[in-house]
Amino acid sequence: MKKGLKQSLTVLTTVLLLSACGGNSSDKSANSTDKKNETGQKSAKVLNLMEASEVGSMDTIFTQDEPSVNAQSNVFEGLYQLDEKDTIIPAVAKELPEISADGKTYTIKLRDDAKWSNGDNVTANDFVFAWKKMADPKNQANYFFLMDGTILNGTEIVNEEKSADELGVTAIDDYTLEIKMEKPVTYFTSLLAFSPFFPQNEKFVTEKGKEYGTSSENIVSNGPFLMENWDQSSMSWDLVENPNYYDADKVKSEKIHFEVLKETNTVFNLYESGELDVAILTGDFAKQNKDNPDYEAVQRSKVYSLRMNQKRNDKPSIFANENVRKAVAYALDKKSLVENILADGSKDIYGYIPKDFVANPETGEDFRKEAGDLVKTDEKLAKEYLEKAKKELNGDVTIELLSKDGDGDKKVAEFIQGQLEKTLPGLKINVKTVPLNNSIELMKKGDYELSVSMWGPDYQDPMTFLESSVSTKNKTSYRSEKYDQLIDDASNKYANEPEKRWETLIAAEKVLVEEDVALIPLYQQARGQLVRPGVEGIEYHNFGATSTYKNAFIKE
What we know:
556 residues; alpha+beta
């Protein structure tokens, strides 16, 4: 890449989302008027949306769940953002980065009219402060592993060999940010649109201390919306137009209301009564509404898988046994799961990298198509592996399955339980159901055996799904020298050889999913939903935040 070249990055348009809509009676009076949006006027009609679970934190370094990423990506704004086609476009940055010839220095100019909601200017130091805060292991940021192998000294900081102050990011002046890289990272600009890389107002954050990001009163915003009526226990909140946002004239809605809704029956009834403008449906409700003119299936790049923890409480778990892992993997009928239980357009998947997410840089062929199917259903083979496992373990096999408490989550867990026990006599599944944030904490601590887990891509590259087995993102205690060598080669040896890097990543996925059966991909998610006529401008994204609302509104 030549010096001074502006980086441009265009991505495939597939979609995602876990937000929709939910309202209450207090919204109805606000809904009585609507200024027509086609003229550029703002809509005074409240758009009622939903999330399937609570927002865990509004501190961007503690991002760990989809509702939080969505909220953060509408209340804050980073250097870059995604447009409706998932093209990287400037946000707080004035333009795409200037990248040095060796790919190791990024120079980014910031716009000088971006402000925080308290009136402070958004400066380069706000990014330096936030990134060093994220990199510092003592803060236990959920995404601090993103510093490993990217920004200069990030690896040493993550490994506690250097101070976070030595991270290779510098504010040259108030509106110029310089980033030094450990090595060229082809997807780095797309990473800068992800919420953990958003800025933080150092003075405000320091004043609030541990309370920062825990409630509406403890947030200062630089994005299109302010967050009102929210704390970490809230089952509802509002996004209200931020008057200090530099592009406030283009924000289409004055107010968007959210409700947390976990039961599909409640979701459907609220939509039918007019209190909900987008209703996420699964199972029977999705089947029954396929012919409804309001129904649509939004394809996403999120992959649900079974995570098998090989060590629990520092002791080998049942999944340390390879034959148990293979028995479970070959026993599952994923097609039946997506057609009969989900019924929302989700697709069974036989690899970890989703379809239509990323293409071969040389040929343009889709990763999933080129890598092929791995570990397809084979009941006979599954039974053989279970018999081997029973001999090695001296008896029948009992497994605890961790599930979230959403309606759809519980039905998926029940399906897995029923099918495994039916297909594999001698295997017993006990389901443990907990709220989303409890599930995340149990997985982070390694206190589980088997879990239905979702991973949505943070940036557009296979590495967002793969990583290495020694990454802090790995919560399964899986270790493989062969796999790690392939990931290391893709990250370093072949960093500037796109085709060899691509082939190496395909080989790594095969080791992870087929040879070692470290996890079991289940399905690539779609979102079946009813959308009220007049709802426009919600943008769904293929990586990072699943949805943004700057251009969203509802008209009469």
